Amino acid sequence: MTLVRVIARPLIASSFVVSGVDRLRTAGATAPQLKPVLTGVAKIVPSAGAITGNEKLVGQVLGATQVGAAVLLGIGRFSRVAALLLTLTTTVNALVDYRSADASSPEGKKARRSQLLKNLSLIGAVLLAAVDTNGRPGIAWRAEHLATDARRQLKKADKAVRKTASDVVGS
Q1: Quick check: 79 and 9 in contact, CB under 8 A?
Q2: Alpha carbons 12 and 73: distance in angstroms, whole number
Q3: Alpha-carbon distance 162 to 155, whole Å?
Q4: What angle do CA 15, 135, 71 make, to 5 degrees?
Q5: Which of these, 19, 51, 22, lies nearest to 38 by C-alpha position?
Q6: DSSP conformational letter for 129
Q7: How far, in Å, CA of 63 to CA of 22, rounded?
Q8: Crossing angle, helix 79-100 and helix 106-131, to 10 degrees?
Q9: What is the pLDDT along the chain (171 residues), one digit of tens a residue?
Q10: Cα dihedral sign, 124-127-129-134
């Protein structure tokens, strides 16, 4: 792992650990803020109604997921999956924060916009971490080269078969 990854991943993860622990501690208090977002999810995905009915539990699951995924990202284990989980939880947090922020005054609007930009920046950071292959070839690269190698081998085999067939026919 390069020095940049060794430093950057824990730095990115630290914000998520603090946010997740805070969400776990205050799940009961933040449950009303989750309700409008979860209601919107239940309208889009009707089968999610049973899960989204308990806002406090959803808040606790979001917090625990954030803490767990952030720790995994920070130590470099399952970092791509962890980054995707952090992307999902941060998206939910951004929606909740944006909907519940005070926008009645210019200061409130400025704070709301600043919080939204911070959340979008964090989403961008974890998306970059999600596509980071840690210096190793990704699945798409491996599949492309496997296909190229297979085509090359088929051409060689075809050439060998044609040569053998022409030798058999010619003799």
Answers
A1: yes
A2: 8
A3: 10
A4: 25
A5: 51
A6: H
A7: 8
A8: 170
A9: 578 778 888 898 999 999 899 988 988 887 788 877 777 777 777 766 666 677 888 888 889 999 999 999 988 888 889 999 999 999 888 888 887 778 788 888 888 888 889 889 989 988 888 887 666 666 777 788 788 888 898 888 888 888 888 888 876
A10: negative
CA angle 151, 149, 146 (to 5 degrees): 110
What is the sign of the dihedral through the CA atoms of 47, 50, 56 and 57?
negative
- Token pair belonging to 129: 């971490």
Question: How far, in Å, are 3, 38, 132, 134, 143 from residue 18 at the CA level?
Answer: 24, 23, 23, 25, 38
pTM: 0.68
**Tally of residues, the chain:** 171
Structure tokens at 116: 């939204």
Locate tokens 């979860």: which residue? 38
C-alpha–C-alpha distance, residues 88 and 16, integer Å: 12
Q: What is the DSSP string of 50-101?
A: HHHT-HHHHHHHHHHHHHHHHHHHHHTSSHHHHHHHHHHHHHHHHHHHHHHS
- Residue 120: CA count within 13 A, CB half-sphere: 7
